[in-house]
Amino acid sequence: MTDPSPEELLDRISKGCTDSLSQLYDGFSAALYGIALGILKNEAEAQEVLQEAFIALWEKADRYDPGLGKASSWIIHLTRNLAIDRLRKRQRQHVGQERFLEQRSPEPEVAEPSSALISQERAARVQAALRALSPEYRSVLELAFFHGLTQSEIAERLQLPLGTAKSRIRRAMERVRLLMTDSSTDFP
C-alpha cells in the first residue's frame, strides 16, 4: 500500500484526522523548517514559523483547493508567507527602534494590526493549551513542533516504542484541539 498523497492528507486533516497531520509533519517538517530558516536566518524564529505553519494547516486544511495547484506547493507557500510576514514584522520593529533612538521623543506606539493581534491571541491560547497538558503529552508536542523531531526521533529520544510515541502525539493533538475549540475554557 502506498503512502497517502499530500492532497489526501490535507483532506483527512480537514476532517480532524490527527494521524494525517503527523504524517504530513513527518513528510514536510524538515523542508519547511529549511525554508523558514533560509528566510529568517534565525533557528528559534524558524521553529516558531514551523509551529505556526502546522497550526495553520490544522485550522485551514479545508481551504486547500486542488484545482489551484498541488498540495505541496500550497503548504510551502503558506510556510513561506508566514516566514516573510515574520521577517517584515522584525524589520518594522527594527526601523521603529532606530527612529525612536534618532528622535529620542517618547511617542506612543502604533497599535498592531488586527491580524497580528489575532495571531498573538492564538499563540497565547496554544501556549495555555500546552500548559494544560500532562507532562508526557506536552513533551512529545514540544519535541515535534518546537524542536522539529520526527515521530521516530521522538520515540528514540524518550525511549518509547514508536507506536506509543505516535499515540501520545495523536492524543496530545486531540487534547490541544479540544482545549482550543472550547472557547469557554479558562486555562490555568
TrEMBL record:
Lineage: Bacteria, Pseudomonadati, Verrucomicrobiota, Verrucomicrobiia, Verrucomicrobiales
Superkingdom classification of source: Bacteria
Zinc as UniProt keyword: no
Protein name: RNA polymerase sigma-70 factor (ECF subfamily)
InterPro entries reported in the protein's UniProt record: RNA_pol_sigma-70-like, RNA_pol_sigma-70_dom, RNA_pol_sigma70_r2, RNA_pol_sigma70_r4_t2, RNA_pol_sigma_r2, RNA_pol_sigma_r3/r4-like, WH-like_DNA-bd_sf
Membrane-spanning ranges: none
Naturally occurring in which organism (per UniProt): Haloferula luteola
Domain RNA polymerase sigma factor 70 region 4 type: start-end pairs: 125-175
Region feature (Disordered): 97-116
A GO molecular function held by the record: sigma factor activity
GO biological process, one term: DNA-templated transcription initiation
Family annotation (SUPFAM superfamilies): Sigma2 domain of RNA polymerase sigma factors, Sigma3 and sigma4 domains of RNA polymerase sigma factors
Domain RNA polymerase sigma-70 region residue range list: 25-92
Family (UniProt): Belongs to the sigma-70 factor family. ECF subfamily.
Transcription regulation keyword on record: yes
Compositionally biased region (Basic and acidic residues): 97-107
Alphabetically ordered keywords of this record: Sigma factor, Transcription, Transcription regulation
